[in-house]
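Progress report, Aim 2. The chain analyzed during this reporting quarter is listed below.
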Amino acid sequence: MNRNYIFGFAAAAALIAILAFAAWALFEIKPVSKRVPPSREARLNEYLALDRWLQNNGISVRIESSGKPSSIYNAAERNIFIQASLFTWNDDAVNYIINWVEEGGNLYLYLDYQTTPVNSYSSGEHDWVFTDKEPFRLLEAFGITAESKKSNYHYDGNSPAYDRNVSFETADEDALILKDWYGIARFVQVKRGAGKFAVSGRPRFLLSSNLDEAPNARLASAIFLANNGEPSWFFIRGTAKIQGLFGSLWRQGNLTVLLVSLLVLLIICFWTVIPMFGLVREDDEKPGKALRERFLAEGRFYKRYGALDVYRNAYLKEIKRKLAQKEGLLDKDEIEKQLNLTEHYTHAEFPKMIIILKNILESI
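Predicted structure tokens for the chain:
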């Protein structure tokens, strides 16, 4: 082996070893956390983690975006979750739910509220801003009263995440009452007959963003896994609304500025693309030469350079084609022999020869 090759290979190996040692000594590989935004499904369904957790525990989940009394009458499930504002309430529905719970049903009522009081219902000392009074009749039937009572936020890692806008009271000594940091009841569960009735404000402890915390998971287990042996839940609840582009602009930006900018941009684009209005200017067209003059000029050119055979060969090619169709394929020499044509002609004989070929072509 060539000695130069050996030295080159050794130098390259040494360089690679030095670079590898420097990389090992100077650099360090560290894991980097990358934030992955939630999927569209998770943004639409803020209870997606709860649904999957229940299904993984062998509990079937059925979800409806709205409900009415017939939804309860026809439900095969014995465990029902109702978002109050999405249910069509009437007195018959309240009476049926009361009997349904006493006969062994398990009901969780999510008592949400509106921001504008319409036919507001008074409960205790505060005016409740809920549009229907039937949910409060249902609460009273189970010995529970509700009122809108806010409290300041205080994070407590040992208690579930409650709705801080709704508080409850009950005289039932056997009721399960869960309170927040300030001692305000935020969740109440009572037993009636063979069933149970639970009520709260917005169940923040069930949201996908909070369910992984231990206090929230324990409360969710106590509510949904203690299901009287019925492995199914029927949810009547809403879905979250994803804020679109224009909604975000309207909420965080100035939509008027955007529209004015678009209008100005459109005007500039049309100004640069569309020509000025008015009559189209006509270009002066120079008359071309007559066809006869063009052919004479072409003929003079061919005559000057001794290339008049171009015209002769064109006639011969067409004559050959027509004779081939009638009498079979003939070569050029035989055609010229039959037509008594010769390769040698003078310029004075050329017009006469062209006339002969033209007559022959017309007679075939």
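The first strand starts at residue 60 and ends at 64. Residues 3-26 form the longest helix (24 residues). These observations will guide the mutagenesis work planned for the next reporting period.
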